[in-house]
Structure formats: structure tokens, C-alpha cells
Design brief:
Length: about 375
């Protein structure tokens, strides 16, 4: 007798959350694995970043023929990288086009990030976002722009040009609210020109596990030498809980914004909401559930982007229930408790640090990838 296993990822979709995968390589495109993931796992989109491309391209012979072609055409190392990345993105967009069409533009998006080295340069970000969008030339492409103070004006401009945007590296609730406002301003600017805003999509990538990793380290440091049992209990009660509480507060802000007159005016013109996308969802601490950043944040009009291991774990044992609006008061209380004299965690400082580190975590693999590609170009170039 065959035992039917339940794929919990498909149950999540029934509750209004889309599952995207945080991974892309030519291997999974050419082997047919990506198509299978759409059918078998219910994957509705793909996110990529410089770290993912470094892993995919560095040391992988599958790209050699295209690298050699680039060398013959006299392309620079950066141009060769872009030709490889753009081809993978185009092919993935084509594979996900039926999802895009079936969901009427809700899902089926593939995200590519502008170079992380320009995260603090508004004009360069705008220029590269428009160039990438034209070069890839797929309507189900999303351009990833970091949610830095310099990135948000770029988001507004790029949205006003009719380009889909995935705003990444969001940690604080304030940065998320600012991101939704940047989206609104872009839509308003486009509508003011008399142009259609009904085909534009955006997500706000709100990071999770990195917050807990950082806060937990601070708590462990504070626990050293603590003898006061009350203080110890307060500190331990916060471990592993800040990221989810922070995300639940952000979702409440999302609800407030979509109830505003300003949003309703855009909605009447066909605007699509900017969905919260839960990112950095692989659990870093082995003591915690490997699907905690999925289970606790399932809810309507959201996206969760999962690396392959978390995706497989969730398909197997996620406990699917609409929880994004459960224990909301507890979430607010927990965030407030960080100010308690016995806890004393400067969460704004933590979020600022995480943003700086986040940019660095994309710059390093991007630089490393270009370096390894340069080595490969030297090896493959005809003598």
C-alpha cells in the first residue's frame, strides 16, 4: 500500500501565502528540476542574490562555453558575469511565465539584484535597475534594490518607470513602512503621468533569522555573570523571539497602510499591494525549529522565500496555520521589553548594524565571484 505524503507547502498557498525559492543555478534550469519544483512543491517564484550567483557560477563547468563565447566577443569580466546571470534569469522567467499568467501577475517573478557595490548610490541604482530590466526583457522580472536610505528614492523612481521591484535588506519596522511609502510615491508619480499602474508588482523583503542571531549573541553576552534570577529570566524569555515579533508588528503596519485613503485611491486605479516577503528564513540555531520562520508567519498577502533545505523541511513537517496575526499583543510587548533596564537592547542600533552587514554579505560574494570569473577567463582564454 502506498502512503500518501502531504506537501505542507501547498497548504500554505491555500492560506494566501506564496512560497518562493531562494536559489537559482543553470543546473536546476537545464535538468528540469526547476519545472518540477513548480509542479511538485508549488514554488511560485525565485529570488537570487550575489551570494547565490557566486555559488552557482564559481567552479561550475556548465557555464564554460558561454564564458568562452564572451572571451571571443571581447567582453569584460563584468560583462561576462552579466551575460551568464541574465541568461539564467531569462530562462527562469520563461519557466515561471505560466505561473505569472495563471496568477494574473501576482506570482511567477524572478528577482535579480543590482550590483551591491552601489547600495548607497541613488542615481547609479536607478540607472542599473532600468538597464537590467531592459536587458533581461521579461515582464515577470523583479529588480532587487536594497532598502537603504539611498535605495528608497531609487525604488520610487524605478516604480514610476513601470518596473517591478523587490526591496531587500529590510530589518526594522520603520524601514518597512518607508519602503511601502516609496512604492506608493512611485505609483502616484506614474498615475500622475496618466500611465497604467495595474501591472506593477513589488515585495518588501523583511529579514528574520539574522535578527535573532544578532540579538541572541547580545543576550548570551549579557547573561554572563548574571546572578539575579529575575533579570536572567527576562533575558532568556527574549531569545529566538525578536525576529518573529518584529515581523508581526510589520504586518500590522501593512494592514494600516492598505486601509489609508492614500492607498485606497491607488487601489481604485488598479494598484497591487506591496506584499511583505519573509526573507532570511533558514534557522541558524540548531536549538530552534528548522521551520520556525515559516510556521509563525503564515498569512494572507505575504510571500516566504525559502532556501532549498528549509523548503524540503517545510514540505515535510510545517505546521500550517494562519499565525501572522496571532499573539500580536505579545509581539508588541516583547519589542517594548527590549527597553527594560534589565534587558537594555538597542534594537535600532541592531537593525542599523544588520543593514551594514547585509550589504557587506552581498558585496563580498559579488567581488569574490568577479575574481573567480577573472581566473576562469584567464584559464579559458586562447593563448
Amino acid at each position: 500500500m502506498t502512503i500518501m505524503t502531504v506537501n505542507h507547502l501547498l497548504e500554505i498557498e491555500d492560506l494566501g501565502q506564496s512560497i518562493w525559492m531562494d536559489n537559482l543555478s543553470r543546473d536546476i534550469i537545464e535538468s528540469g528540476e526547476l519545472k518540477n519544483l513548480i509542479v511538485e512543491k508549488g514554488i511560485r517564484g525565485i529570488t537570487s542574490n550575489p551570494a547565490i550567483f557566486e555559488k552557482a557560477i564559481a567552479g561550475n563547468a556548465i557555464y564554460d562555453a558561454d564564458i568562452e563565447a564572451g572571451i571571443k566577443q571581447g567582453k569584460s569580466v563584468l560583462e561576462i558575469y552579466e551575460s551568464l546571470a541574465f541568461k539564467d534569469i531569462q530562462d527562469a522567467c520563461d519557466i515561471f511565465k505560466p505561473v505569472y499568467e495563471q496568477t494574473k501577475g501576482l506570482d511567477g517573478y524572478i528577482s535579480i539584484e543590482v550590483p551591491p557595490t552601489i547600495a548607497q548610490d541613488t542615481e547609479s541604482t536607478i540607472k542599473e535597475a532600468i538597464r537590467y530590466y531592459k536587458a533581461v526583457d521579461r515582464e515577470n522580472l523583479m529588480i532587487k534594490i536594497p532598502g537603504t536610505p539611498e535605495g528608497l528614492p531609487a525604488v520610487t523612481k524605478v516604480i514610476s518607470e513601470g518596473i517591478n521591484v523587490n526591496v531587500t535588506l529590510l530589518f526594522s519596522v520603520e524601514s518597512y513602512v518607508n519602503t511601502f511609502m516609496a512604492y506608493i510615491e512611485g505609483l502616484e508619480a506614474r498615475a500622475a503621468k496618466g500611465e497604467d499602474i495595474s501591472k506593477i508588482a513589488s515585495v518588501a523583503s523583511f529579514f528574520l533569522s539574522r535578527i535573532d542571531s544578532k540579538v541572541d549573541d547580545l543576550i548570551d553576552e549579557k547573561l554572563k555573570g548574571v546572578t539575579d534570577l529575575n533579570k536572567k529570566a527576562k533575558l532568556e524569555a527574549i531569545k529566538g523571539k525578536v525576529a518573529i515579533a518584529n515581523a508581526k508588528v510589520a504586518y500590522q503596519e501593512y494592514k494600516k497602510i492598505i486601509q489609508s485613503d492614500r492607498w485606497k485611491a491607488l487601489s481604485a486605479k488598479g494598484a497591487n499591494v506591496q506584499r511583505l516577503l519573509w526573507a532570511s528564513t533558514s534557522t541558524k540555531n540548531a536549538a530552534y525549529s528548522d521551520v520556525m520562520y515559516v510556521d509563525e508567519l503564515i498569512g494572507p498577502n505575504t510571500v516566504n522565500t525559502l532556501p532549498p533545505n528549509t523548503m524540503d523541511a517545510c514540505a515535510d513537517h510545517c505546521d500550517v496555520e494562519n499565525r501572522v496575526e496571532t499573539k500580536v499583543e505579545e509581539a508588541y510587548n516583547l519589542m517594548e521589553s527590549l527597553k527594560d533596564a534589565d534587558v537594555d537592547i538597542d534594537i535600532d542600533g541592531v537593525m542599523d548594524e544588520l543593514l551594514t552587514e547585509g550589504i557587506d554579505k552581498f558585496v563580498k560574494p559579488f567581488t569574490s565571484l568577479l575574481g573567480s570569473l577573472e581566473d576562469k577567463v584567464k584559464r579559458l582564454a586562447p593563448v
